């Protein structure tokens, strides 16, 4: 009986996508600019629709997060006042002050790692090349947050 050998190619997605950002696949892989691929109305529509969807989701998630944090704080206060838990306020204040100092220390240096800086530069270049799409997204995002 003949045994059939199947050969499979293994695709390492991390390596495959490392030099292929998602926006290059969506907006003209050859140029990186949507201005050469779509007309102004299409760019505004794409940006506006994606911006509205993103803003709408951010609004809903923001309300849910605010409710969860506020509700949790409210329950902790009730538990503290009824005696179920005891909060060491001096320890809490010391830890908050320590966190503030660390934030001041990290923000005063204002140093980004080269990898983060290159990603930020890449995003800025993309936004500049696709200014109409970016404007539509920003407008749609604000409308989505308002609705």
From TrEMBL:
- Membrane topology value: Multi-pass membrane protein
Q: Where on the tree of life does the source sit, at the highest rank?
A: Eukaryota
Q: Does the keyword Transport apply?
A: no
Record keywords, A-Z = Membrane, Mitochondrion, Mitochondrion outer membrane, Nucleus, Phosphoprotein, Transcription, Transcription regulation, Transmembrane, Transmembrane helix
Matches recorded under InterPro entries: FUN14
**Which BP terms does GO give this entry?**
autophagy of mitochondrion
Cellular component GO terms, alphabetical: mitochondrial outer membrane; nucleus
Localization annotation: Mitochondrion outer membrane; Nucleus
Protein purpose? Binds directly and specifically 1,2-Diacyl-sn-glycero-3-phospho-(1'-myo-inositol-3',4',5'-bisphosphate) (PIP3) leading to the recruitment of PIP3 to mitochondria and may play a role in the regulation of the platelet activation via AKT/GSK3B/cGMP signaling pathways. May act as transcription factor that regulates SREBP1 (isoform SREBP-1C) expression in order to modulate triglyceride (TG) homeostasis in hepatocytes.
Q: Which family does it belong to?
A: Belongs to the FUN14 family.
Q: What is this protein called?
A: FUN14 domain-containing protein 2
User: What is the scientific name of the source organism?
Assistant: Halcyon senegalensis
Encoding gene per record = Fundc2_1
């Amino acid at each position: 009986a003949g045994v059939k050998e199947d050969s499979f190619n293994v695709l390492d997605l991390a390596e495959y996508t490392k030099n292929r950002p998602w926006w290059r696949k969506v907006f003209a892989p050859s140029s990186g600019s949507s201005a050469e691929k779509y007309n102004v109305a299409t760019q505004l529509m794409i940006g506006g629709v994606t911006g509205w969807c993103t803003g709408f989701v951010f609004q809903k998630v923001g309300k849910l997060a605010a409710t969860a944090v506020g509700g949790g704080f409210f329950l902790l206060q009730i538990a503290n006042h009824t005696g179920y838990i005891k909060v060491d306020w001096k320890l809490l204040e010391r830890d908050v002050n320590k966190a503030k100092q660390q934030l001041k220390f990290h923000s005063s240096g204002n140093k980004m790692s080269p990898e983060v800086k290159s990603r930020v530069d890449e995003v800025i270049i993309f936004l500049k090349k696709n200014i109409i799409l970016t404007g539509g997204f920003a407008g749609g995002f604000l409308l989505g947050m308002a609705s």
